[in-house]
Specification:
By secondary structure, the protein is an alpha+beta fold. The chain is about 55% helix and about 15% strand. The protein is built from eleven helices and four strands; from the N terminus they run H-H-H-H-H-H-E-E-H-H-E-H-H-E-H. Strands 2-1-4-3 form a four-stranded antiparallel sheet. A hairpin with an 8-residue loop joins strand 1 and strand 2 (about 125-130).
Length: about 220
């Protein structure tokens, strides 16, 4: 048993030495007084790709690749990768909503609750119903509240408190939403608003197809005439 362990340790040491990358040189140039865990983490990141390629499954290879990329990443490349990931996750209707909100305009939004009784809390039947879907010309306006919930989770929109009198007409339209009419007399509407978030504005500045000079590359942009 002891001999077997020694052989395994020797084998790991040989693999580590053969797979050392320039990252190890960076780690060794760190101040000697630095935290010991930092050097250990850098060593592991440097050797992870080699160990993964030789003995680990594809998931470990994927993590090793990401860790290696992270060593050379900058704030700009981090933004690009994040924006590309978000862009690839968006549905066409969600892209329309982001485009509509990019002007900074505020739209009426609301949660629909159903009164269940005095001793029980009101039950939420729909969150984030809004007029922005129809205003943006989405293909499936019935899914607007789902789109906004996803966009909110991505950090692209802000759901805020009830708006002023300028949104009165929009709130009245929301009272005709199927989620409200199905609830009937038990419906309780909690009015809110939706607008693009600060992060959403940064995202739009990077992907806006109408600003070719400022947009970052993502595949091929559509011809705008």
């Amino acid at each position: 048993m002891v001999v077997g362990r020694m052989l395994r340790v020797c084998g790991d040491a040989i693999t580590w030495a053969a797979g050392a990358t320039p990252l190890l040189g960076i780690a060794r140039r760190l101040p000697l007084g630095g935290p010991p865990m930092a050097l250990s983490a850098l060593d592991r990141m440097a050797t992870a790709p080699v160990l993964a390629l030789e003995s680990a499954p594809s998931l470990r290879m994927g993590m090793a690749s990401l860790l290696q990329q992270a060593v050379h990443s900058t704030a700009a490349t981090g933004d690009d990768l994040l924006f590309k990931k978000i862009l690839s996750d968006l549905l066409p209707d969600e892209a329309r909503i982001v485009a509509a909100l990019s002007s900074g305009e505020v739209y009426a939004c609301a949660d629909v609750l159903v009164r269940t009784g005095r001793r029980e809390p009101d039950r939420t039947v729909a969150r984030n119903i809004s007029t922005v879907g129809r205003m943006a010309g989405v293909a499936a306006p019935a899914h607007t509240h789902r789109y906004l919930t996803r966009l909110d989770e991505l950090g692209l929109v802000d759901i805020g408190p009830m708006g002023g009198s300028s949104l009165t007409a929009q709130y009245e339209l929301l009272e005709l939403d199927p989620a409200v009419t199905k609830a009937g007399g038990k419906a309780k509407i909690v009015r809110t608003t939706v607008r693009i978030s600060a992060f959403g504005s940064d995202f739009w500045a990077a992907v806006d197809p109408f600003q070719r000079d400022n947009a970052r590359e993502y595949g091929s942009w559509p011809e705008l005439g």
